Automatic annotation (TrEMBL):
Sequence ranges of Basic and acidic residues compositional bias: 7-41, 48-73
Annotated protein name in UniProt: Uncharacterized protein
Region called Disordered, residue ranges: 1-75
């Protein structure tokens, strides 16, 4: 009986697993697979572009502050002009010409409306220092073309009067300066082959 029990016990020990044998590690394969995946992922990932080093610009020099120079000024009184120009404005018949004839010294009057000689006659002795010249003696406004042509002639005549006055006057009176202005315009138009009332594109011709 004991012999049979011992035989069964031996058979049981042979069939029972050895407890001291080391167990197999099952986790090693998954770790290697994970590592392989990580290496593959890192290969597929692109590295971010490297930033180029910025060139350092040289610092601009700040503008130097220049201290203002000390200026010397002349604070003396203004000197009078060599020539004095007086404009008398007023409506017709208000005494503009008579007022001009009252100036001290010798007066040469260039009359453009042919009325100054009558005023000189009325004033008598008070206008004995006045010489009257008919400045529009050669001006003819019958036609526009004739007006321009005689305007040029009148301009040359006035310049001749200034050069050929018998005595140097203290004052020159232009009686009726608005007529002088339009006469000079007609002379300018005649020189530039323009019509009497034509528009002007080139404004520089007014400088003549």
């Amino acid at each position: 009986m004991t012999d049979e029990f011992e035989d069964l016990f031996k058979d049981f020990e042979e069939e029972a697993p050895d407890k001291g044998a080391p167990e197999e590690k099952i986790e090693e394969a998954p770790k290697k697979e994970a590592q392989d995946k990580e290496t593959k992922e890192t290969k597929h990932k692109k590295e971010p572009p490297k930033e180029k080093p910025k060139k350092e610009e040289p610092e601009k020099e700040k503008p130097k502050k220049v201290s203002p120079k000390k200026e010397e000024f002349d604070y003396s009184d203004a000197e009078p002009l060599e020539k004095t120009v007086i404009t008398i404005w007023g409506k017709k018949g208000k005494g503009k010409t008579s007022l001009a004839f009252g100036a001290d010294g010798k007066i040469a009057c260039f009359s453009y409306d042919k009325k100054a000689s009558n005023i000189k006659k009325i004033m008598g002795e008070r206008a004995k220092n006045v010489t009257v010249k008919d400045a529009v003696k050669y001006l003819d406004k019958t036609t526009p073309d004739l007006w321009m042509e005689t305007g040029e002639t009148t301009f040359r005549y006035i310049m001749g009067l200034l050069d050929n006055l018998e005595e140097r006057p203290d004052w020159i009176v232009h009686d009726g300066s608005e007529i002088l202005h339009i006469t000079l315009e007609m002379a300018m138009r005649h020189r530039n082959n323009l019509k009497a009332f034509q528009g002007i594109h080139n404004r520089n011709i007014w400088k003549e």
